[in-house]
Amino acid sequence: MKNRYSVILGNLGNTCDRFLSSGYKEVLPKPEMIRKAAAIPGIEGIELVGTWDITESNAREIKADLDAVGLACVSIIPDLFSQKRWGLGSLSAKSADTRRQALEECRTVSRTAMEIGCPLINLWLGQDGYDYPLTADYRSQRGWLTENIATIAAEFPDLRYALEYKPKEPRNFSFQARAADTLLMACETALPNVGVCIDVGHAFMAGENVAESAVLLQHHGEKLFHMHFNDNYRSWDDDMIVGSVHLVEYLELLFWLAETGYSGWYSMDQYPYREDGAAAVCESVALLRSLEELLTPERRGQLRDLIVQGDATRSTRWMRELLFGSRLLPA
Amino acid sequence: MKNRYSVILGNLGNTCDRFLSSGYKEVLPKPEMIRKAAAIPGIEGIELVGTWDITESNAREIKADLDAVGLACVSIIPDLFSQKRWGLGSLSAKSADTRRQALEECRTVSRTAMEIGCPLINLWLGQDGYDYPLTADYRSQRGWLTENIATIAAEFPDLRYALEYKPKEPRNFSFQARAADTLLMACETALPNVGVCIDVGHAFMAGENVAESAVLLQHHGEKLFHMHFNDNYRSWDDDMIVGSVHLVEYLELLFWLAETGYSGWYSMDQYPYREDGAAAVCESVALLRSLEELLTPERRGQLRDLIVQGDATRSTRWMRELLFGSRLLPA
Amino acid sequence: MKNRYSVILGNLGNTCDRFLSSGYKEVLPKPEMIRKAAAIPGIEGIELVGTWDITESNAREIKADLDAVGLACVSIIPDLFSQKRWGLGSLSAKSADTRRQALEECRTVSRTAMEIGCPLINLWLGQDGYDYPLTADYRSQRGWLTENIATIAAEFPDLRYALEYKPKEPRNFSFQARAADTLLMACETALPNVGVCIDVGHAFMAGENVAESAVLLQHHGEKLFHMHFNDNYRSWDDDMIVGSVHLVEYLELLFWLAETGYSGWYSMDQYPYREDGAAAVCESVALLRSLEELLTPERRGQLRDLIVQGDATRSTRWMRELLFGSRLLPA
Amino acid sequence: MKNRYSVILGNLGNTCDRFLSSGYKEVLPKPEMIRKAAAIPGIEGIELVGTWDITESNAREIKADLDAVGLACVSIIPDLFSQKRWGLGSLSAKSADTRRQALEECRTVSRTAMEIGCPLINLWLGQDGYDYPLTADYRSQRGWLTENIATIAAEFPDLRYALEYKPKEPRNFSFQARAADTLLMACETALPNVGVCIDVGHAFMAGENVAESAVLLQHHGEKLFHMHFNDNYRSWDDDMIVGSVHLVEYLELLFWLAETGYSGWYSMDQYPYREDGAAAVCESVALLRSLEELLTPERRGQLRDLIVQGDATRSTRWMRELLFGSRLLPA
Description:
With 331 residues, chain A is of the alpha/beta class. Chain A contains eleven helices and ten strands. Chain A has helices at 30-38, 59-69, 96-116, 138-155, 179-189, 200-205, 210-219, 248-259, 277-294, 297-309, 312-324, and strands spanning 5-8, 43-49, 72-77, 120-123, 129-130, 160-164, 173-174, 194-199, 224-229, 266-268. The interface between A and C is medium-sized, with 35 and 35 residues.
C-alpha cells in the first residue's frame, strides 16, 4: 500500500506577496501547468482552486486535460479568500448576505466536484476570523460557520469536506486555527462527511507536534481527511520545500499516518515565490518518498519499540544511525 | 453580582528557577503566608497545592487557619509535578505503576477536598507530555490520561475537576496543551464534573486569543470551570503581574466571562520571583477590579454594539477614550 | 518641544496581501490621498515611496501638492522591494548588474529628495535576505550591502540614510534584521549620515524591547534617525493601529525617545487592510498624542525615579493609577 | 585540522527546573562526573562552573583530576547566576556593591583559570537584564556592564573573555540578548581579548540563523571565541540533544565555522533533565562528528558552489541526496 502524491495546481504558476502583487514569476497557461504537474515523478493527482482553476463552465475541459495526462482531481478548494467580497469573512461573515453568497459558492463548487468525480472539497476559510480585540462575535460567528458547513455537507453526502486550519493569515486570528478546535467543529456538525485537513506548515506555525495532531484527529473517528505538505521555520507559513528545514518530524508523521490508517492523499501545497515551481514540488515529493521507502516493516517495528521505551537518547540515535550510520568511522 | 478573587498560596512564598534552585527569597511559614493572603484587598479565597500546603493529616488545621481569616478554600491542586516519581508523567505515564500512584494521589486530594468543603480539584498535569520526537505514544498515553481523569471524576461526583492546559514546560510538549484539545478530553469523559481551567498566561503562550477560548469552552456545555490570572510576553509562561504587559485582552476577557455566565473564581497564579509576593498579587487584583468596575451595564452595552459592528478603528477608539478620553486636549 | 507626526502616503490607499492581490479596497488618486492625510489631526508630514508616489518627472508636482496642504516631505523610501528585478535582492543581490541597478535607483531617489528638500532616505531593504539554508553568502552579500550603502551616503552627504530593519518578510531572513546588526552596519560605513529606522512592529516581531533598542541606537552616536509606528501581536508584522494591542511599551518608548534626545519624526506605517485608512491613522496619532500629553515633566520625573528603583510592582502600579487611578473605589 | 569537542561538567550531573527544584536525578560526586565525561568518545575538554565545580581552594585538585583522565579545562564559567545576591543582576546591577562583588567574583575565577592554565572565561550573565516595563535603566546598566567587562579583561590580558548571549531566562529580557548586540558590547571594550560565545540553542531562540551569526562575529575581527551546542524547538532554551530536532542548520553552521577560521572548542551544553547525561552528551558528539566527517574538502567545494548559485531547490536536493541519495529507487 503506497502513498499517493498530489499537488495544488497553483504551485506550478505565479506567486505574489503583499509587496510584489504582480508576482515574482510569469503567469503560465493552465494546460502548461497541468503538463508540468504530470511530469513530476510520483505525482498522480491535482487539487484545483474554484474560480482560479475550475468553474462550472470549464469543468469538463479541465477534467479532459487531467484525464489526458492521467491525473486524478483530488480535491477542489472553493475560493472563499481571494475576492473583495470575502474580506470580512465568508461562511462566518457578520453579513447574512455574504454568508449566503459563500454558501452558494460552496454549492457551486460541490456540484462541479460531483460532475467531474472529485471526492473531496477542501475548505480553507482564510478570511473567517478577525484582526483586532473587541471586534469579533466569537459566539455567533462560530455558530454560523458551523451551521453553514453542516448545511453544505448535508446537501452533498457523497462528498467529503475537509476543514483546513491555520492560526493566522490573512486574518490575525482564524476561527479554524488549530487541529483540536477544528475537530470540535467537525464533530459538532455530527456528519460523517465533515473532517479536517492538516497542512503541515500550519501545524508547525500553531506550535503543534504534527504527528500528535494527526493521531488526535484519527482517534476521534478517523477525522483526518486530507494532508497538505510544505515546510517552514515554525513562526510563519513560509510554504517551503518539504524537508528543507525539518526532517525527523516528517518521518514521525509518516509513521503515524500509516499507524492510524490514514488513506488520503499526500498533497504538496507550497509557495515557491522565487523558485521554479515544478522543481520545488518535485523535490518535496522526492523527500517524502525517501522517507516512505525508509519506513520498511522492520523499521516500523523498531519505531514501535522505541516509542514504547520512550528513551530520548535511543530514539535520537536511531534517527542518526538511519541517516549517517554506515558512514561514521569509529572514534 | 461581583467577581470573586482568590490566590494560590504559593504566590506568597519563595520562588525558584532552574538556575537558582534554592529560590530568590526566603521560605515563609504557611500561617504567615495565609495571613498575608488574607490581608490583600479583595482576596476572598485560596488555592492550595497538595503535599506542599495540605495533606490528609494537616487538612483540619489548614481549614481552621483559613476560617480564622475568613478565606474560602477555592481549589486544591494535586502535586503531580514536583516529585521525581512523576518525571516521566503521572496519569499518562507509560509505567502502569506510576499511573496507579498518580490516581491514588488524586483520590487522596479529593478526599481531603471533600473533608474541608473545597468544591474543585485543579489538575495541572505538567509532567504529562513528552520532550523528543519518536518517544511518545500519542494514542495510548492520551487514552490512559482520559481514562484516569474519568475514573477519579466518577468516584467523586460532588467535586468538579478543572483541567489546566499549558503548551509546554516542564515538558517540551504537554498532552493538555490548548483550550480545544483539553475540552475534547473533558467531553470524552462524558462526565458533567470534568471541565477546563484557563490560565491566561498559558493561553497567551499558546497563541490563543483568551476571550475566544473562554467563549469556546462555555459554548460546549459551560466547561470553563476555573480561571488563573497572570501576564507574560506571549512567548513563555513568565507569570507576571496582571496588566503589566497586556490590557485590552483582559478587558475583553472579563466582558466575555460575564457574557457567557462564568461564575467561578478569578484566581491569581503568579511567580513573583524577585518581587514581594503579597504586593505583586495585590497589584494584580487591583487591575482586575479596575476593569470590573469599568464594565458597567452601560459600557457592556456599548461593547455589544461595537462587536456587532466589528469596526477595528471604532473598537480601538472606544478603548482609548475609556483610558485617556477626558484628558486629551483638542488637536 | 512637541513631537512631529507624519504618515506614509500609501497608508491612505489600497492594501493587498498574497491571497487578494488586487487589494481589499479601491485604488485612490494620489491627490485625494494627500488631502486625506492633511486632514488627519496632528499630521504635519508625509513619507513617499519612490516610483509608487514620486519620480523624477512628477517630483515638483507632488511637492506643490504637499505645499498646498502644508505637509512636509519627511522621507522618501526607494522602491527596492516591489519589482520583479529585486526578487533576489537589491543592494546585496548576487548579480552585480542588479546591485548596480539598485544603486542607481538610490541615486535617482536621492536626487529627487535633494530637489524637493526632503532630508531623509528611508531604506527598507525587504528583498535583501534569503529564504533557505545553504543558499546565502552571508559574508559577501553583507559586504556588498554595506559598501553600497556607504557609496550612496558618501555621494549625498546632505541627506540622511535611515536603515529600517525587519527580521523577515518578504524573505524568510533579512540581512538587516534587528536593531543591533543594523547599527553595526551603519557604524561600519563610518559615515555620519547613515543611521537606523525603528519600525515598532518590526522590533516587537524581533523579540526586542523597543525602548531598549532606541536607547542602544542613541547611545552609539545618536544613530536613531527615524521612527515608524504600528502595532501587532508580536509574532508577525500585522501593521495594526498603534495602541490597539500594546500600551505600556509605547509609553516607555516615548519616554526614552525624549530622554535620549530623539528629534526625528513620529511616522505612522500601517496596513489598514480592511479599515478606512484615514480613520485608522487618525486613531494611531490620537493614541500617541495622548501618551505625549501624559508625559508631563512631573510624570517624567516620576518615571526616572521608578527606573532607579526598579521595583516591578511599583512601576506597574504607577501605570495602572495613571490609567484608572481616580476611578477605582476603595476595596 | 579536526574539531575539538568538550562538555560542561554539569551536563553529567543532576538537573532541576522550577517545579522540581531537587532535580530529576541523583547528585553525583564530581570525580565520577569527570570520569563519565572522559569516557565519552571524542570528548577532550571540560568546562567548569565557578563555585559549583571549581574554587580557589580546590583548583589544583580538580586540575589533577582532569589531567588524570587527559581532559583539558576549556573554560570556566563564573557563577553569576545561581546565588540570591545576583537576583537583580551582577555586573550590571543597580547596586554598586553588587557590581563590585560580581567584579570580584570574576577576578577570583580569572586567577583560578590562570593558575590551572585554562585560557577562556565564559561569561553567561543570566541575571543581567530585566523583567518588567519601566524598571530598567537601559543606558546606565548597559554602561556599567560594558565597563566592568572591560575592567576585568584589561586586568587579565592573557585570558580570553567570551560573552554568551541569550534572549531571556532567567530574566524576561537579557542585556546580552543576541549576537549583534553582544558583539557591539565586545567591540565597545576595544579589547582584543573580549569576544562572543554562541550557544546554538540561544541563537535559535533569538530567531537567528546561527550560521549567519557566526559569520557576522568572525567578520568583525574574529570575535567568535567559543561555541555551545544543544538543540531546541526554537521558542525556548530546551537544551536538548544536538540534532534531535534540527539537522541542516548544524551542517551549515559547521561549514561556516571552518570557512571563517573558527578554531575554538565545540562544547556540549545540555540539560538532560530526564535522560542519562553521559548518553545524551555522547549522542550529541556523535551527531556533530558525523557532520564533520561528511564535510570533506570535495563536499565543501560543492557547498561553495551551491551558495554562489543560491538556488533553494538545488541546495535542498544536495542535502537530501547526502542523506538518502543512494537508497532512493527511481520513480
